[in-house]
Design goal:
single chain, 314 residues, alpha/beta, Rossmann fold, 6-stranded mixed sheet, 5-stranded parallel sheet, 9 helices
Length: 314
C-alpha cells in the first residue's frame, strides 16, 4: 500500500502561460500556501512549473466532495507513457481506499475531454488501470476542492523513478500477444515528418541491425497492446532516441538498450529503475543549427554498438 495524503480545502490553479520553457500551475492548502508537490505532477513536457508561493486568486469553481489528484494529463505519448502513466499507477492504488472520489487532472489549456478520447492511448491506459468509468474533471479554471487526496508520487526526482514503480506497473500490464523476437530494432523510417527524423540514412542503419539478427519493428503502426507486448518479450532493444525506446520502462525482461542520438536523462532513468544496461552513442550531429537531434553513425560505429550490447549479455 502506498501512502497518499489528504488536503482539506485545497485550491488548484490551472496550467497556463506556457512560454520560455515554463508553465504556471499550482496546488494550495487551506492557508493559501503553495504545496510543494513533486513538479512532474503538474509539469508540462517535463518542465518545472512556476507558481506564486501564496494564492492570490479566488476559485471560480468548487467541488464539495472528495477528489484524487492525478497530476498532468499529458497529450503527447512520449511524456504520457513516462510521466502520466506512472502517476496513474499511484492513482489506481489510491482508488482502492477512496472508491467514490472524482479524479482530478491538470491539463494544457487547449485540451478538453473530447481530445482525451481522440488520443487513443489515453482511454487505453485509463481502461487498463480500471479508471475508465471513474468520474473525472480537468482543471481549466481556479478550483476549490473540499478534500483532495494526493497519491504518493512515483518519482524521486526528475528522471528518477521510485523503486516500487516497476513491480506495480507490471501487475497491470496485459498478457503477451506478440511473436516478435528477442532482438528488436525500433525503426523510425516510416515517420515522414522532418522533426521525426533522428538518424541520417536510417535505412542503412536498420539494414545492419537486421544483418546482425535484429527484427525491425515500426511501433507507430501497431496497436498499443502489441507495442507493449513486443518490448516485454524482447531482451535487447535498439533504435534512435525517442518514444519507442522509452517503452523499455514497461519490460522486466529487457537486458540492454541501445539508444542512438542525443543524451537522454529520461531514458537513463528508465534503464536505471529497470536494471537495464544502457548504451547511448551520440554519433555526429548532422546539422548543429537544427537542434542537434539528427545524428550520423558510421558502419563501424553501428557494429561497435551491437558488439557492446552482445558483450554485456555474456
Amino acid at each position: 500500500m502506498l501512502h497518499p495524503r489528504t488536503i482539506e480545502n485545497a485550491t488548484l490553479l490551472p496550467l497556463r502561460d506556457l512560454h520560455l520553457g515554463f508553465a504556471r500551475a499550482g496546488v494550495y492548502g487551506s492557508d493559501g500556501d503553495r504545496l510543494d508537490l513533486w513538479p512532474l505532477l503538474v509539469a508540462a513536457d517535463s518542465r518545472v512549473p512556476v507558481a506564486p508561493r501564496h494564492l492570490r486568486e479566488t476559485a471560480e469553481d468548487s467541488i464539495d466532495g472528495g477528489c484524487i489528484y492525478g497530476g498532468l494529463m499529458n497529450p503527447r505519448i512520449g511524456h504520457f507513457i513516462t510521466e502520466t502513466v506512472p502517476n496513474l499507477v499511484a492513482i489506481a492504488d489510491a482508488c482502492r481506499t477512496f472508491p467514490d472520489h472524482t479524479l482530478l487532472f491538470h491539463c494544457w489549456t487547449e485540451m478538453g475531454e473530447d481530445q482525451m478520447q481522440q488520443k487513443s492511448f489515453i482511454p487505453f491506459f485509463l481502461d487498463l488501470f480500471g479508471l475508465a468509468d471513474r468520474a473525472f474533471k480537468l482543471v481549466m479554471r481556479p478550483l476549490k476542492v473540499a478534500s483532495l487526496v494526493v497519491p504518493e508520487a512515483p518519482f524521486l526526482g526528475k528522471f528518477k523513478y521510485k523503486p516500487w514503480l516497476p513491480d506495480r506497473l507490471d501487475s497491470w500490464l496485459p498478457a503477451l500477444t506478440s511473436d516478435a523476437g528477442e532482438k528488436v530494432y525500433l525503426s523510425r523510417t516510416k515517420l515522414k515528418a522532418h522533426k521525426d527524423v533522428r538518424l541520417t540514412d536510417e535505412p542503412r542503419v536498420e539494414a545492419i541491425y537486421r544483418e546482425r539478427g535484429y527484427e525491425s519493428v515500426h511501433m507507430q503502426n501497431l496497436p498499443l497492446v502489441d507495442q507493449i507486448s513486443i518490448v516485454r518479450q524482447a531482451r535487447h532493444l535498439a533504435g534512435p532516441q525517442g518514444t519507442a525506446i522509452h517503452w523499455s520502462l514497461y519490460s522486466k525482461r529487457v537486458e540492454t538498450v541501445v539508444s542512438m542520438g542525443y543524451k537522454s536523462g529520461l531514458q537513463a532513468g528508465i534503464c536505471d529503475v529497470r536494471g537495464q544496461r544502457y548504451f547511448n552513442p551520440r554519433g555526429i550531429i548532422a546539422n548543429p543549427f537544427a537542434g542537434g537531434r539528427k545524428r550520423w553513425f558510421s558502419d563501424r560505429a553501428i557494429h561497435g554498438m551491437i558488439d557492446a550490447a552482445e558483450a554485456a549479455d555474456d
